[in-house]
Design a protein that fits this description.
Layout: H1 11-29, E1 38-39, H2 41-48, H3 52-64, E2 68-71, E3 75-78, H4 83-106, H5 110-125, H6 133-148, H7 153-170, H8 180-195, H9 199-241
Antiparallel strand pairs: 1-3, 2-3
Helix pairs in contact: 1-3, 2-3, 4-6, 4-7, 4-9, 5-6, 5-8, 6-7, 8-9
Amino acid sequence: MAKGPVQGTSRDAADHSQKAYNGIRRMLYNKELVPGQKIAYRDLAEQLQMSPTPIIQALKWLEIQGLVRHAPNRGYYIEPFSLKELEEIYELRELLELALLPAAIEQLDEKGSQQLRQALTAHRSAEREFYLKERLFKNMEFHLTLAALAKKETHLNILRTIFDLLFLKYGGNYLPIASLTSVDQEHQEIFDYVMARNLHGAQVILAHHISNVKKQVLQSLQRMLEEKEDLQGMLAEFSHAFK
């Protein structure tokens, strides 16, 4: 779990800011705060049972992370969905994961092999329902476990931040249910190539896997946004008809 900055504050103030930060993140993950929504920080303070000051400090840190934005004289808003941003996130994820593969295979030992095997099994054993968060977490853990084999902590932290943004802003829930079998198969192939220390094979299937997921997620989000626009149009027409 990411942490907000605490420099230059007292320990109590830092603790309250961290509590506010974690509370808002939890609300984002549970969809109690949704993209495009204006944030009433006084309401948040009441919900989280604290003063507005740590709430505002937490919002400033979330703004740095790209999860909220501040409009002068208007307040804070949850950043809206962006197909362009989502595409860029997956492109960056692909670049980073592929760059870590050579070191991951070079550093592979028995402990690492066991950890990756356990992550693969955990993902395959997770519930198969579309919106079940356990499966999303297990998918993330497989990729982070593979990346961690490279023993490059800075790279790994950046990858964690990428997944963090995908979960908190985009929910990770836009992968069609029909793709679950192909994801399982691709994870197995990645695992097999890594265990065989076949770098080229691992790079090819990993690139295909992330690119394929990106394509399906973007298509699903595009449909969702179009349906939202259609609904808003219908409501506007309905409202106009009764004026």
